[in-house]
Each structure stands twice: as structure tokens, then as C-alpha cells.
Amino acid sequence: MLKQFLGTDGKTLLALEDDVIFADFTRLQDAVAELPEDWDVLYLGANITDMVSGMKENPPVRYSKHLHRVRRAWMTHAVGYSRKAVESIVGAYPIETYEMYDNWLSEKFLPHNNCFLVNPMVAWQRPGKSDLWGCMTDYSGAFAEGNKIMQNEKISF
Fold first, then answer.
1. Does pTM surpass 0.85?
2. How far is the CA of 58 from the CAs of 9, 48, 74, 149, in angstroms?
3. Half-sphere exposure for 80 (CA within 13 Å, toward CB)
4. Which of 11, 85, 92, 134 is spaced 20 to 30 A from 32 at the CA atom?
């Protein structure tokens, strides 16, 4: 999909998986208005909990009223990409050797680029059978905990 996007003249890409659920979409407009011109990735929802190693060293940081800067985040069910980010990702992602895209993005791309998460999140992944894991999954708790993490942080803008 990212390679196909590069064949267009689009400036941004919104990638949605088939199991995405949306909350109050009005917050998205506020968040997009607060993005810096040089943004790379915008998560509409993500797993930012401490369930995966690395979060304690790389917590999300408030950027503005509706955005947190993320250096680590998982899940790609609802993500906006700038053209510059897509070009960089397509050129760097080792599709033959790296197992999971969201892990690679979190470990190799987010820490070095201008990546954000809408606060509070506006998109969740619907509970259901995961093709990747081959079992039922429900990340509702991770989204709820992530929103708590962002709401409990001191405002610094």
C-alpha cells in the first residue's frame, strides 16, 4: 500500500485496517491543526502502554492540547503518513527479514522522526480474531490505559 501511494501525487496517506472503530472524530480536526509542518506519522490510536519493553525509557510526551509526541508505539490500524515518511519507510523497511511492521516502526522509525498520537485517541481496533496471531485479541484495555497515561501527564505547552 505504501509503495502504491508513492505512485500518486498525494501529500498524505491515511491507512485504515478493516477492524478500526472510531470515537469522537471532531478531536482529529483539532489534532491535525496542531501538527507541525514537518510531521511524519500521526497515530489516531496506538498501544503506548508499558506492556512491551522500552516504554519506560521512551514515554509519550505532550506536544500540544491534542497531540503527544511518540518515540514508541504499536498497532497500525489507523495511521496518517506524510509523503516524506512513506518515502523513508519504503526505502528502509526490510520486508524480507523483519517480522512485524509495527515493531519495526516503533523500534527503528519513531525514535528518529516527528511522530505523534492524537490525545485522546480517536480510533481503536475492534476485538476479534487476529490473522497475525491466529487467535482472539482484544486491545481495549491498552487503548484505555494509553488514554489514562496521556491524561495524567502534566501539561507543558
1. yes
2. 34, 10, 13, 13
3. 21
4. 92
Q: What is the mean pLDDT of each run of 10 residues along the chain (157 residues)?
A: 95 95 87 97 91 63 95 94 97 85 93 96 87 79 87 58
Greatest extent of the chain over all pairs of C-alpha atoms, in Å: 43
- Residue 21 CB: number of other CB atoms within 10 A? 15
Q: Is the sign of the CA dihedral 89, 85, 119, 112 positive or negative?
A: positive
3-state helix, strand, coil in the chain (%, to 5): 30, 25, 45
User: Looking at the 3D structure of the chain, how many domains does it have?
Assistant: 1
The answer as to whether 106 is a domain residue is: yes
* Calpha distance 100→75 (Å, rounded): 10
- Asked whether residue 157 is domain-assigned, the answer is no
Range of the domain at 128: 2-152
